[in-house]
Automatic annotation (TrEMBL):
Keyword line: NAD, Oxidoreductase
UniProt source species: Pseudomonas benzenivorans
Protein name listed in UniProt: D-2-hydroxyacid dehydrogenase
Pfam families cross-referenced by the UniProt entry: 2-Hacid_dh_C (PF02826)
The keyword Transmembrane is assigned to this record: no
InterPro entries documented for this protein: D-isomer_DH_NAD-bd, NAD(P)-bd_dom_sf
UniProt superkingdom: Bacteria
Position of the signal peptide: none
Domain D-isomer specific 2-hydroxyacid dehydrogenase NAD-binding: 103-274
Length: 310
């Protein structure tokens, strides 16, 4: 079965897949011209949504496309076909995202960046740190990644609240409410962690009205999608002291252009879309599991509902 791998790390993926599925006829590249030459003969595609969206735009189409990203926004452009099976990467980002979130929570409570600034100024900083115990963490987006983050944080004694597309009981959260409860729960949060996908319903939700609900001591962490945050409103909240800090991993435009206000906003840390990188061994395992499901006509793990956008 011919497989097209469109990935910067295509050689690594090819080696991993050949070890378990030597029957696959693999064509791999990150060169758009090479990919276009092979696309028509390959019914299965694996790779980066940005590279594969370009092939779809040229009129090529697979029977099944497995994204190596959790986000699939490039593949949802209105002029691209949707009559094929699409699955996004799921179940492989939980721990790395949890480590990212926990690292920044601990850095804030232990005042690591303030102490580094004091050291640069040769100023002795003996201010006392705080504990995570009893802090209220609101996770917005309680799918498999949000669930993993919550399970990772639970042993630290935080109070876990969640917001999802619908209210539900979900351990270890105290409560998972629907999106309509976001303003109320955000007002009580010490940390607001956005993990939402990019859909029409999740764009521009962190605007001036919602940010005004947050406590001045609250920290916003956006590791979901950049379009969820209204950039100018976040910068204004930080400049006016209405928010303690923000950690921004994803932006509306990447790389962030020179002169963007995020570069100089006070107490804003940019982490360059590095929160949860794809690990090729885990991704290869997911692809092989989905390959068996595809061959037997089963629902794929992470199968996308084009109407919902995820």
């Amino acid at each position: 079965m011919p497989l097209l791998i469109a990935e910067a790390a295509h050689a690594t993926y090819a080696e991993l897949l050949r070890q378990t599925a030597p029957q696959l006829e693999i064509r791999g590249s990150a060169d758009p011209a090479e990919l276009a030459r092979w696309a028509a003969e390959c019914p299965l595609w694996l790779g980066q949504p940005d590279l594969l969206a370009a092939l779809l735009a040229q009129g090529h189409k697979p029977q099944w496309l497995q994204s190596t990203w959790a986000g699939i926004t490039p593949l949802l452009a209105p002029d691209l076909p949707r009559d094929y099976r699409l699955s996004r990467a799921v179940g492989i980002f939980g721990q790395v995202m949890a480590e990212y979130v926990l690292g920044h929570l601990l850095a804030h409570e232990r005042r690591l960046f303030a102490r580094l600034a004091a050291q640069v100024e040769q100023r002795w900083d003996n201010s006392l740190p705080r504990s995570l115990a009893g802090r209220r963490v609101l996770i917005v987006g309680c799918g498999d990644i949000g669930q993993s983050v919550a399970q990772f944080l639970a042993p630290f004694g935080v109070e876990l609240f969640g917001v999802a597309s619908r209210a539900r009981a979900q351990a270890p959260f105290v409560e998972v409410a629907g999106m309509d409860a976001l303003p109320h729960l955000a007002a009580e949060a010490d940390y607001l962690v956005n993990l939402l996908p990019d859909t029409p319903a999740t764009r521009d939700i962190y605007d001036v009205a919602l940010l005004a609900r947050l406590k001045p001591s609250a920290v916003l962490i956006n590791a979901g999608r950049g379009v969820a945050v209204v950039d100018a409103d976040l910068v204004a909240a930080l400049e006016q002291g209405r928010l303690a800090a923000a950690v921004i991993d994803v932006c509306r435009q990447e790389p962030l252009p020179p002169g963007h206000p995020f570069w100089t906003a006070p107490r804003l840390l940019l982490t360059g879309h590095s929160s949860a990188p794809t690990e090729p061994p885990l991704m290869a395992r997911l692809f092989l599991d989905n390959l068996a499901r595809w061959r037997s006509g089963q629902v794929l793990r992470g199968q996308v509902d084009f109407a919902r956008g995820y």
